[in-house]
Write a structure and sequence with these properties.
Elements: H1 13-66, H2 72-84, E1 87-88, E2 91-92, E3 100-106, E4 111-114, H3 118-122, E5 126-129, E6 132-133, E7 141-142, E8 153-154, E9 156-157, E10 160-164, E11 167-174, H4 188-191, H5 193-209, E12 223-224, H6 229-235, H7 250-259, H8 261-265, E13 271-272, H9 274-284, H10 302-318, E14 324-330, E15 337-344, H11 347-355, H12 368-382, E16 388-395, H13 405-421, E17 426-431, H14 437-447, E18 451-454, H15 460-476, E19 480-482
Parallel strand pairs: 11-14, 11-16, 16-17, 17-18
Antiparallel strand pairs: 1-2, 3-4, 3-5, 5-10, 6-9, 7-8, 10-19, 12-13, 14-15
Length: 484
């Protein structure tokens, strides 16, 4: 038997109460949803402004850190200037000196330590910028709807820290005998007779200042003497005068002045004096085991290279950012290269060693590949992974070892490619007309480095000035990094 379905209904006061509760809940929920909506608008606005302010901080920190080598005032000026190129909250960003802090970044602990004195600021390697949008500056962020809840403005502060990445640098110098060629009579055509002869006289004066005596009746300006070797030696009263160096002899010197083509072309055949004697040492007996005093003199271009290295080390030291430098030389006694000093922050030791070497220190020849290999091994074995590791390579000649020019070029490029595989850029400097600038350019290109070419055929002062400029540019090239 089926029964009719029954439906319960509520009426009267109870129904009215239920409808009232529903309406209250709907009102509450609509209010909450409206509040969340307007807050979402304001939060979105704050996030946008915060991103703008962070971009300002990043740009200002990088710009400020780029000026650290120029001093605290320059750093702050750059930070303010680049910060002003940005905007936040629809207004040009304003960075005050109080927002800029110079200090030191520790890559191991990832901690920034503010400088607490003027001296520390001068040595700072990092800079922090903290731009602000706040009420007391009159640039707090106005909110659109939060005022309905009693919040009309919000203040924002962001920060960014940039620092100079430390570098491990191996300077690789060419100490082949050609590095004194610009002081020899054979370069009169390129540099002028007066300049070359003045340099030879300067070298003789420097030797005397370092204790070298005069010999027999010789004087600086050569005098013409005829006859055989023994007759000339007797005429100069050198018969009983010991020859001053381990290799060479008075007889070899006289033979040289009588028979050498360069001497003849310079107009000094059969003319004897300290001018031709110094030229003989530079040309025929330049090696350190032959004439060991030549490191003391201003032979060129090796002296200009030494001066540029000194300037480079001074720039690196002045911008003290935990850099280290090593020194390698080619070609060594065994025909390869030698690590003169490993990576160190003792720049005085590097300078002292570079000064105490001469053109032809070990060999006459040029093994560029061996120089690169020695530098690469030092950076791979002793370099610090967080640092920028790089090689600075200089030559005035053409690669001709380990065997001949063809194999020497291939060997140099092989070593450059190995350096590239290790992420080691090579900055190359070719000096003078004889330098293989094409090879040096290729070495720089394959490793992601830069090539500088300093042509020959000009005065020593001209290429010395360019060398200094190049080394300063290298010293100033410090990678900047945002670290927080």
């Amino acid at each position: 038997m089926s029964h009719p379905r029954q439906t319960a209904t509520v009426s009267g006061p109870r129904a009215a109460r239920q409808r009232g509760i529903t309406l209250v809940w709907m009102t509450v929920m609509m209010t909450v949803m409206l509040g969340m909506t307007v807050l979402a608008v304001d939060i979105g606005h704050l996030l946008t402004v915060d991103a703008e302010l962070q971009a300002t901080a990043d740009a200002a920190a990088l710009a400020g850190a780029s000026g650290l080598l120029r001093g605290p005032d320059e750093s702050r000026a750059r930070a303010r200037s680049f910060g002003a190129l940005n905007s936040a909250n629809g207004l040009p960003a304003v960075i005050e000196n109080a927002d800029i802090v110079l200090g030191f970044w520790d890559g191991q602990t990832r901690r920034f330590t503010p400088a607490v004195s003027v001296d520390e600021e001068l040595r700072a390697d990092a800079l922090r910028v903290m731009p602000r949008l706040e009420g007391q500056r009159g640039n707090a962020v106005s909110l659109f709807f939060a005022g309905l809840f009693g919040l009309d403005q919000a203040e924002l502060v962001t920060s960014a820290t940039a620092f100079y990445q430390p570098r491990d640098i191996v300077v690789v110098l060419d100490y082949s005998s050609s590095m004194n060629d610009d002081s020899e009579l054979k370069h009169i055509d390129q540099l002028g007779q007066d300049a070359v002869e003045a340099n030879l006289e300067q070298i003789w004066n420097e030797l005397q200042a370092n204790g070298m005596p005069e010999f027999g009746l010789m004087q600086f300006v050569p005098v013409s003497i005829g006859g055989g070797v023994s007759s000339v030696i007797d005429a100069l009263e050198l018969t009983d005068v010991p020859y001053p160096h381990p290799r060479g002899s008075w007889s070899e010197y006289v033979d040289y002045v009588q028979d050498d083509e360069v001497i003849d072309e310079a107009g000094y055949r059969d003319r004897y004096g300290y001018l031709t004697l110094v030229n003989y040492w530079l040309h025929i007996r330049p090696l350190a085991h032959e004439t060991p005093v030549l490191w003391q003199v201003s032979a060129q271009p090796i002296t200009s290279v030494k001066d540029a290295v000194t300037l480079f080390l001074d720039f690196v030291k002045r911008g003290s950012t935990d850099d280290r430098v090593a020194l390698a030389a080619y070609t060594s006694t065994d025909g390869t290269a030698v690590l003169e000093h490993g990576l160190t922050d003792d720049f005085a030791a590097i300078e002292s060693i570079s000064r105490a070497r001469q053109a032809g220190q070990y060999q006459h020849y040029t093994n560029i590949g061996a120089g690169i290999a020695t530098a690469r091994r030092e950076l791979v074995d002793q370099g610090r992974p967080p640092t920028l590791r790089m090689i600075v390579l200089i030559t005035d000649g053409r690669a001709n070892r380990p065997t001949n020019e063809v194999t020497a070029k291939s060997f140099a490029m092989e070593q450059a490619e190995l350096a590239a595989d290790e992420g080691l850029p090579i900055i190359t400097i070719s000096l003078g007309a004889r330098a293989d600038s094409a090879l040096m350019r290729d070495i720089a290109e394959v490793t992601g480095g830069v090539h500088f070419n300093i042509p020959g055929g000009r005065s020593v002062s001209e290429y010395a000035g360019e060398l200094n400029a190049v080394f300063r540019q290298i010293a100033d090239h410090r990678p900047l990094r945002l670290v927080e």
